[in-house]
Amino acid sequence: MSSANQPESPPWHAAFPAPKATPGAVTASQLLQMIQQFKASGQPTYMLVDVRRNDHEGGTVSTSVNLPAQSMYYSLSTLVALVKATGSVKSVIFYCGSSRGRGPRSAGWFQDALDQHGIEDIKSYILEGGIKGWVKQGRQSGHQEMLTLTEGYEPGYWDQHMDN
User: Fold this and answer.
1) Where is the region Disordered (predicted)?
2) Residue 48 sits in which domain range?
3) Second label for 107, Cα 20 to 30 Å away, from 10, 17, 19, 27?
4) DSSP classification of residue 10
5) CA separation (Å) from 161 to 20, 145, 158?
6) Sign, CA torsion 85/86/89/94
């Protein structure tokens, strides 16, 4: 039987409600400043969440935790409790490859969970352009620090997978 005759499977996120919230964005330059401040003070004011699962090649932004979007919805209450317990984290920034699907969806779910818990002093954001935007800006002159802050950075991967 040809695959053209088989019905398409629904996308992974179809099993979950659409997020109500539309979080704002943090630029790569703003994130760089946040990382620099954290490294200088040792006091985290943000949590960075990489929601990629099987497309994690090329590196990840330093200080990120990897929580794949496909399991994010089930982890929201735990993530809210962990962030709240820090006492210092006020921004949770989500990203995927380009921050056009999984990143915004996860950030929206997280903001919905914050709203549901009545938490107003913590906000959810997406990293504008995702890891691709971070690396693209890092590859531009004057932004090399972004590449040194990309754990597992593989230049050859990005040479093949990005318009320079």
Assistant:
1) 1-21
2) 20-157
3) 10
4) P
5) 32, 21, 5
6) negative
Give the CATH number for residue 150: 3.40.250.10
Domain-embedded: residue 164: no
Flag whether 163 is in a domain: no
Tens digits of residue pLDDT in 42-93 = 999 999 999 998 777 889 999 999 999 999 999 999 999 999 999 999 999 9
For residue 163, name the pLDDT band (cuts at 50, 70, 90). low
- In-domain check, residue 109: yes
b (16+ CB within 10 A) / e for 42-78: eebebbbbbbbeeeeebbbbbbbeebbbbebbebbee
- Between CA 70 and CA 149, with CA 123 as vertex, the angle to 5 degrees is 70
Handedness of CA 104, 62, 164, 70 (dihedral sign): negative
pTM for this model (two decimals): 0.92
In the block, which residue shows the tokens 């090399």?
A: 144
Say how many CA atoms lie within 13 Å of 22 toward its Cβ. 1
- Alpha-carbon gap, residue 79 to 49, rounded angstroms: 10
